[in-house]
Amino acid sequence: MATAVCHRQEVGTWSSIFPSDQMTEQKSAFFVKKLLAVSVSYLTYLRNIFPENAFSNRSLDELELKILQESSDCPGANKVCQWVRSCFEALDKKYLNSLVLGLYMDPSDPNTLLESYSFKFNYEEGMELYHNNEKILTSTTDNTKKSTVTLLRTLLVLTQGLNPLPDGVMMTMKLYFNEESTPSDYHPPGFVESKQDEIMYEDDTVNIKVGEVATKFHTVKMRIRTNRHNFELSPDTKEIVAELSDGSPEEIKDQGTASPGGETGEYEVDCVCGSRVEDGMLIVCTVCDKWSHGLCYRIIENNDVPETHICAKCPGQCTDASLMGADRATIQATALWRRTLYTLTEVKKVKDRELAQRLGIALDVAKKLITRLVSERFLRKPPARSKQGYTVNQAELKNKGIPHYFSLLSSTQEMTQETQGMKIAGEKRKLDTNGEEFELSSSQSWTANKRLRSADIKTPIRLN
């Protein structure tokens, strides 16, 4: 009589959690799905979102992990498991561009977040991999293992610098799709078409790089974004994170000013408006090879793009003759005013923090812009104690504002009467090793040529 033998797999081994290798596209896709599930599980544990009994125990390289159990007695944990599983099909089909797990306070406003955890997915067969700005010729399982453990360890350390979540927090999930490959009517089970693509934040935020994991076929990047005053690392903890990420402590935190969603960081934007975010149509200077916002030079349509563009910083005949001879402050304020006006044509309401995030400028500058917008009747003040923001006067803006300030007859001096002296806080964020910034920010749906369609979860969760 034969005896049945069951070999128990060690909980601390790589293969007890992830596939043993990722050298085929199918295995790589399975690994990415497991990494997403493990990362979401671990961060919900570290942020004390669900009780202890909602998790099972695993260990990886002496790192004690907690994995959500769908069969637990916690309905919220079960829902999050279902959310993550619903994303798997979009990953397999290469539809999913980004995923945002968001926490918010106002049940009626799931698009204004208190804190978010973002995952960005890239798909490319035989992609070139980099580490510390040095090219790695081929992906190996060892490299993937090392970067996975580093990401999870960094997540552990970073969450220790976050303040506890307040009572009554809601949780939601938002997905962004690759436009070129995703059917226009597609959304995974449990998700519905978003009514609003852009994400807002309650206060000034920091955008924190957690890590990046790559295989030959996929790359996953993770970020945390939270209130600036909600995050503080001790000096010792900064050193730990720097050691884990092979970066200096100063590089751990990047200011979370706005940059468009989709393929961000493809271009080196250095525009006269003072903002380095990609926003709408970009044109490249033939002298310095830097990219500018078309709107800053009164270029709205593709047909308006000149054969050669010379920016206002370079010698030669500037694309916009009205900027020639003006001082730097006047040019900067003029360009920013143009971007502001045209950006407002796409929305019905706006708040000062939203405007700052979307333009990639400091909050005090956004407030000065709003003061002028109100004085010129392009915005209407909200009622007292209202949280709805300023109402955009579209008729006044489109009939008078755009024709006047984008006219060849308008002067830079006239445009900058009330914006002189503004200090524009353009972002200076480090590009990753692929020359790409990652941040799915509030300006996501404001770009004319980099817009991503999104889907929201049907039933958000209220956390105890």
Helices and strands, in N-to-C order?
HEEHEEEEEHEEEEEHEEEHEHHEEHHEE
Mean pLDDT over the full residue set = 78
Oligomer: single chain
- Count up the helices: 9
Give the strand tally.
20
Q: Could you estimate the helical fraction of the residues in percent?
A: 25-40%
Percentage beta strand: 15-25%
Distance between the termini: 55 Å
What would you report as the Rg, rounded to the nearest angstrom?
24 Å
Q: Biggest sheet: strands, sense, closure?
A: 9 strands, antiparallel
**Computed structural class:** alpha+beta
Shape: globular
Low-confidence stretches: 1-11, 245-266, 415-421, 423-450
Account of the protein in words:
- By secondary structure, the protein is an alpha+beta fold.
- The chain is 27% helix and 20% strand.
- The chain has nine helices and 20 strands.
- Strands 3, 5, 8, 9, 11, 12, 13, 19 and 20 form a nine-stranded antiparallel β-sheet that branches. The protein has a three-stranded antiparallel β-sheet with strand order 16-18-17. Strands 1-2 form a two-stranded antiparallel sheet.
- Strand 6 (129-131) and strand 7 (134-136) form a beta hairpin.
- The radius of gyration is 24 Å and the shape is globular.
- Residues 1-11, 245-266, 415-421 and 423-450 have low confidence and may be disordered.
Can you tag this structure with a few keywords?
464 residues; alpha+beta; nine-stranded antiparallel sheet; 20 strands; disordered N terminus
